[in-house]
Amino acid sequence: MEKNDKKTIRSWAYFDWANSAYNLVITTTIFPAYYTAITSDTDPGTVDYVSFLGQKFVNSALYSYALAFAFLLIAIASPILSSIADSRGNKMIFMKMFTYLGALSCCGLYFFEIDTLQVSMLFFIIAAIGYSGSLVFYNSYLPEIATVDQQDAVSAKGYAYGYIGSILLQLLCFVFVFFPEFFGLAGKAHASRFSFLLVGLWWMLFAQIPFRKLPKGSPNFREGKSNVMTSGFRELNKVWKQVKQMPYLKRFLYSFFFYSMGVQTVMLVATLFGGKELGLPSETLIAVVLLLQLLAIPGAMLMSYLSKNFFGNVLVLMGVLVVWIGICFGAYYTTTAGQFYCLAAVVGLVMGGVQSLSRSTYSKFLPQESPDHTAFFSFYDVTEKLAIVVGTFSFGYIEAFTGSMRNSVIALAIFFVLGLVFLLLLRRVEPKSVKAAA
Q1: Structural domains present in the chain
Q2: CA atoms of 211 and 92, how far apart (whole Å)
Q3: CB-based burial of residue 339 (10 Å sphere; 0-12 exposed, 13-18 middle, 19+ buried)?
Q4: What tens digit of pLDDT does each residue of 315-326 get?
Q5: What is d(CA 295, CA 233) in angstroms, rounded to the nearest whole number?
Q6: pTM above 0.85, yes or no
Q7: 160-172 in b/e burial notation, b at 16+ Cβ within 10 A?
Q8: What distance lies between CA 332 and its chain's CA centroid?
Q9: Residues of 96-112 as b/e, b for ≥16 C-beta within 10 angstroms?
């Protein structure tokens, strides 16, 4: 396949357009606000509990635990699946499978009410698995469609498409949530659930663009009678041997693991924090997150520009982590809505940049002619998913143990510090050839 083809890159970016609606509506804005509303009482001075699988949980802690469980499952499954896809050249099949799994689960959330909490949380978990699983295969296309010098820009383009697409659907959902009677919906709760249905339909519809244009997978299918599970682990072992010979890649993964604990957890619980700790209404929180998404677009472009023309990827990432550390301490001391808005604006500027630059930096560190890009990106994805497991679980546990989300935020700052330390160590072993590219 010819690299740097504009049509192929555009179709690849449309997958971000398709699935980012899940990331905004389900994990960041309307769903967290709806979940908090239906699982909380009217007294802000009490701790709200829910019963799930016969156990009693703080409502926001259960939300964190559910996400942690979903990402743990995908972290276990994705290395096997991605290795099989690489060895058999059919990554597109897996990309489609996880896409439809996630999108249909979002549609199932239309039936989420307090009486259906048990099955609805199952849909929530499966949707997260579908979203994360599809990204394993989507990300692995990056080194196949773009040369090293273009991967920063292509990665940023994908995130930009994602932010634009998700914002458009979010605005459409706003219309339903704010004016439900006009559309014959029975109040804001019904409109919120209708938004979950729209996310699933949007996701499946626009995913058809990359499904039609991108290749089915690397042409390295090998006939054999070996068990697919055994074959998958063999592929992983082969990649791990290569990773061990690249100390800069190992240290980048260590750094990525720690700072992803912070980045991903902040994105997943920001709405809950504003609602529970500051008492902000759901309409205000949704509007703030929308602004955050708008700022993320120029933020991703800015990081790409700075890394390409001035500092390189690693130095820019180090600077961004310093900003994230400041954000965590700022959140700990935030007490007013105005302070929360300012903090959200800063998060927006660095959120897209750190995600886009992390993906392209890792892509540059890989052996560019390797046929096992999906297996390499499964390591990247597993690292991120395990980071989310640790980050979200620790956030929920610390909140449940201490009674305050603010204490959980300080733990996130520690994760960012550790990520910064490993980037500093990376600079000491980074080869000149890699340093020039990244």
Answers
A1: 6-38+55-220+232-437 (1.20.1250.20)
A2: 7
A3: middle
A4: 889 999 999 999
A5: 41
A6: no
A7: bbbbbbbbebbee
A8: 23
A9: bebbbbbbbbbbbbbeb
